[in-house]
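Chapter review: from sequence to fold.
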Amino acid sequence: MAEVNLKNVTKSFGKNEVIHGISCDIADGEFIVILGPSGCGKSTLLRMVAGLEKITGGEVAIDGRVVNTMEPSERDVAMVFQNYALYPHMSVFNNMAYGLKIRRMPKSEIEKRVMNAAEILELTAFLERKPRQLSGGQRQRVAMGRCIVREPKVFLFDEPLSNLDAKLRVQMRLEIRKLHEDLKITSIYVTHDQVEAMTLGDRLIVMDEGRAAQIGSPLEVYSRPATRFVAGFIGSPAMNFIEARISPDGRGVNLPGGINLALAGPAPEGIVDREVVLGIRPEHFEVMAAGEALLTLAVDHVEILGADTLVYGRLGGGKVALTLRLPDVHHFDAATSLPLSVDPARLHLFDPQNGQRIAV
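The token string follows.
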């Protein structure tokens, strides 16, 4: 196991800079998830740690050694790829053992390590099979087993579950988390799936166009997003954003249609009576009795999902589109007026120019 330290890491392809000075200290045994949409640079960052991409600037250190110029084989890391990358003509045993044979490790040690990994991953009964005789989940476990037998300092995962169906993804998520808890090897995991990120990571690095928009625990990122981008990317359905204005006394926020919502605390003096972007998560609305409502939603459409109900409608005389996520099953006809309330502590404010969070 080892610490991984990223210090102002940059990557350019010609004049096009795609990674813009990312810094993060990853603790020994920590599970870090790099999360973001396609094209944000998350896999490029992982490949620079692995040594598969050259670093343009900054430093990557593993276990206290700067590895910028080291070959991948010298970094003592093991990588699980999206496409399994198994040898189709080899058995499961030989796929897992191949890297150790290349290192000329004693046969007895190879067998010991492979059998141990197979037991951890419940692959003992499949050791003589070829990859084509395995399910997608079993192939991914073989790919993980090939990494485990190397006993590396760092595990690197590049969207390892994206080829699996939804049910199998859930199962494999649990297996990866259990594997990390058992082995406690420092792990860096890349995904665009926020559910994987929230359930697997000790901390998240949320990427936005080659920059680390926020680094923090899953609950920190969800509860106090640092930017409008992070707020919109984390959560399903996405956070509602409303163009609004801080009231002249700084204690509330005015929405279109004459709606005023109280803030949890006074707004900073610099934004009093100024335009802001108000963010409210769909799950943070509460349906109220008519006389207690702060807001009234004109319902347009309802989607019943079983455990939840999604409600789409408009506020302020139809000027503001809004999505609600309510627990359980609810039936609302179109044009129903739905009285709502929201806890002031659940309101998020963002600067309309740079998208940064405004603390209140």
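Two observations follow directly from the output. Residues 4-227 form a domain with the Rossmann fold fold (CATH 3.40.50.300). The CA atoms of residues 100 and 109 lie 9 Å apart.
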